[in-house]
């Protein structure tokens, strides 16, 4: 039922995370707070960043997956990714969503259609993804701190 002519719709898992620090530091592991989305929904506040994830586990080989918001959610001015819209050939896991409601508060619900995957063929030699987010089971905050030689 969620397969379209050129995409596959993904649904929102019942968990969000928000960063708890006022200033995010890319050299440090930033703490988050877990929010459970009840069946009655959760109100996203404009301008606040939320990390969510998809219910669906995907595995893509031989294609480059690209995630976008579904148009119905986009028309409520909800963005599901900020800059990380491209996946990798060989990625396996649930997709972390970088969610922002930009205009007004918006209520979201667990299991609602929120994003879609589109696929492009790999050009050249396939080199499947083996990065730090491989196999993620749920919401994954940034791991940019792993790029620096700092102690945790």
For the sheet with most strands, the description reads:
3 strands, antiparallel
Name the assembly state. Answer: single chain
Radius of gyration: 16 Å
For the secondary structure, the number of strands is 10
Q: What class do helices, strands and sheet pairing give?
A: mainly beta
Poorly predicted spans: none
Mean pLDDT: 89
Strand order of the largest sheet: 1-10-6
Helical residue percent band: under 10%
Distance N to C terminus: 45 Å
Strand content: 35-45%
Overall morphology = globular
Number of continuous helical runs: 1
Helix-strand pattern, N to C? Answer: EEEEEEHEEEE
Topology summary:
Elements: E1 8-11, E2 15-19, E3 32-36, E4 42-44, E5 49-59, E6 63-69, H1 71-74, E7 78-79, E8 92-101, E9 106-108, E10 113-121
Antiparallel strand pairs: 1-10, 2-3, 4-9, 5-8, 6-10, 7-8
Structure description:
The structure is a single chain. By secondary structure, the chain is an all-beta fold. Strands 1-10-6 form a 3-stranded antiparallel beta sheet. The longest helix is centred in the middle third of the chain and has 4 residues.
